[in-house]
């Protein structure tokens, strides 16, 4: 049994990463949540580079804190950047977080923006 939340999330994260990997044609959409912001990036694991990224930090003027609405804006922004680089498919990596709240809002917004996963 996990001793605390961080250890539990790391264990779940390693299980997800053992199964999920991104390529240039189908990158991994990785989500990171902090107390103050939410970050999302498309990663090509084979080349080891980030293809596109978006965060609530770069939307500071439009964002109203770390809310579900901000997560939706980040998802739409990431989808726009991906479509601009001719990327339509992705693999979703929730990074050990529950698929609920901000993580779900970001994923749904990315789907609305044109990404398929």
Write the layout of secondary structure elements.
Blueprint: H1 5-19, E1 28-33, E2 38-44, E3 49-55, H2 68-84, E4 91-93, H3 102-112
Parallel strand pairs: 1-4
Antiparallel strand pairs: 1-2, 2-3
Q: How would you explain this protein's 3D organization?
A:
This is Large ribosomal subunit protein uL18. Keywords: Ribonucleoprotein, Ribosomal protein, RNA-binding, rRNA-binding. Part of the 50S ribosomal subunit; part of the 5S rRNA/L5/L18/L25 subcomplex. Contacts the 5S and 23S rRNAs. This is one of the proteins that bind and probably mediate the attachment of the 5S RNA into the large ribosomal subunit, where it forms part of the central protuberance. With about 120 residues, the chain is α+β, with helices and mostly antiparallel strands. Helix content is about 35%, strand content about 20%. It has helices at about 5-20, 70-85, 100-110; strands at about 30-35, 40-45, 50-55, 90-95. It is globular and about 45 Å long.
Mean pLDDT: 93
Using DSSP, what is the number of strands? 4
Helix content: 25-40%
Q: Which residues form runs of ≥5 with pLDDT under 50?
A: none
Instruction: Provide the succession of SSEs.
Output: HEEEHEH
Percent range for β-strand residues: 15-25%
Termini separation: 31 Å
Assign the structural class, choosing from mainly alpha, mainly beta, alpha/beta, alpha+beta, or little secondary structure. alpha+beta
**C-alpha Rg, in Å?**
14 Å
The order of strands across the largest sheet is: 3-2-1-4
Secondary structure tally, helices: 3
Anisotropy-based shape = globular
Largest sheet: 4 strands, mixed
GO cellular component, one term: ribosome
Protein name: Large ribosomal subunit protein uL18
Family: Belongs to the universal ribosomal protein uL18 family.
Subunit structure: Part of the 50S ribosomal subunit; part of the 5S rRNA/L5/L18/L25 subcomplex. Contacts the 5S and 23S rRNAs.
């Amino acid at each position: 049994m996990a001793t605390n939340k961080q250890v539990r999330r790391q264990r779940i994260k390693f299980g997800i990463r053992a199964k999920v990997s991104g390529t240039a044609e189908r990158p991994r959409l990785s989500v990171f949540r902090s107390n103050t912001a939410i970050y999302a990036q498309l990663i090509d694991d084979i080349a080891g580079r980030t293809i596109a990224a978006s965060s609530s930090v770069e939307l500071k003027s439009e964002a109203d804190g770390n809310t579900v609405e901000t997560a939706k804006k980040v998802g739409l922004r990431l989808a726009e950047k991906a479509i601009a680089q001719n990327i339509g498919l992705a693999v979703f990596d929730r990074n050990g977080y529950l698929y609920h709240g901000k993580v779900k809002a970001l994923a749904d917004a990315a789907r609305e923006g044109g990404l398929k996963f």
